Amino acid sequence: MKRLAVFVGCAFALTAADSNRHVIVVSLDGFPAYTLRDPGTPLPVLRRLMTEGASAEAMIPVNPTVTWPNHTAIISGVNVATHGVLYNGLPVRPGAGKALKVEPWVPKTELVQTRTVYDAAHDAGLTTAEVDWVAIYKPLTVDYPFPEVPSLDGKVEKEMLAAGTITEDDLKTWRQTNILVHDEIWTRAAVHIIEKHKPNLLMYHLLTTDSVQHASGARTLQANTALVLADRQLQRIIDAVERAGIRDTTTILVVSDHGFHPYHHLIHPNALLKQKGLLRSQDDNDGWVIPEGGTAMVYVTREEKRKEVLDAFRAPMAGVAQVIAPEEYANWGYPKLTPNGRMADLVLAAANDYSIDGVFEGPVNSDVPGGGVRGSHGYLNTNPDMNAILVAWGAGVKRGVKIGPKPNVDVAATIAKMLGVELKMEGKVLTEFLQ
């Protein structure tokens, strides 16, 4: 269902920030709700946590259903219209007639346009940590960061080098190693931070689950194998909590940012612009489309060509199920359209079995290369395949509670309640989960 952007404050009674409480947010990127409900996929750790704790039938992501916007919603309690993160980075306009670029390495203070629960926790005197969290480059309110791309100069990295948990080669060759290696080292980093620093809030994010489903398609053996591996990594986090002696004061929230949808066909809207003479190259165009999988953002890059660019997408187009105009943005949680702002001039939504690509050479529609299947997200959050997971376990969590679907903005409100910190947001505390 559509979720309107109504900004309210949390109404629960707050106590002083509790330095003896610990919350760990485990994000398993792209873990679909339908896989957790599938008894044929062996997920013993997650299912044990569901039995011993609380879970939702599904967690509803915000639009667009991609990684950075949803991780930011989970940790801020507001949707994209408020927090402003539309992509896995910041859209940059190089100038009239030039293609927009998405820049990931933008400081959090510039990229995220709202306060987060880790900001609130830090300002309340609690300790914060992150491992491969996103939209968090150069954070000012994280005490123990282990970033997406670690370095020899990092504080946590130096501790792990001294402890022999990682090697200099691990860090020096980071950009040459694969996501499976990265997930392993990110897990070691999370374990290290839990055992050495016992932070009040830790945000930990794994990515192999996402990468494999993109390459091999959703609901495949390869996809489920990656999800099963993530389940095993979760046990390492639980074991670290036990070794750290903080089991009785720790709550673990296991979430994902979105689900996955299989597709066999591609749409190339930039190719349509080229066919109509509205796009010559990346540096010479009248309009440009940024794909986000199941949706895409259409930008007018030359104002005098606005009508022609928008008209190109208002006519029926194979594979496009819906064209969302600016007057509809609020219904979907998108920001308002402002001159030279972040938001696009139109949103394209793909039909079932289609995904949207950014190339501009060749036909407007094509099949997946080789005739196979791949997986994507970014579809409108009314697509049930986009539903994510939400499991809570540990201190203060009721046993065996199962509730219906909940919006992901409720997670930040619940963390704030657990830690005793204040944060204004759209989300509401998951009181059904709490003792």
Q: Mean pLDDT across all residues, rounded?
A: 95
* Annotation field: number of helices: 15
Radius of gyration: 21 Å
- Could you tell me the strand content as a percent range? 15-25%
Q: Can you tell me about this structure?
A:
- The protein is built from 15 helices and 23 strands.
- A hairpin with a 3-residue loop joins strand 14 (287-291) and strand 15.
- Helices cover 31% and strands 20% of the residues.
- Helix 10 packs antiparallel against helix 11.
- Residues 1-14 have low confidence and may be disordered.
- The protein has 435 residues and is α/β, with parallel strands linked by helices.
- Strands 7-6-8-1-9-21-2-22 form an eight-stranded mixed beta sheet, with helices on both faces.
- The radius of gyration is 21 Å and the shape is globular.
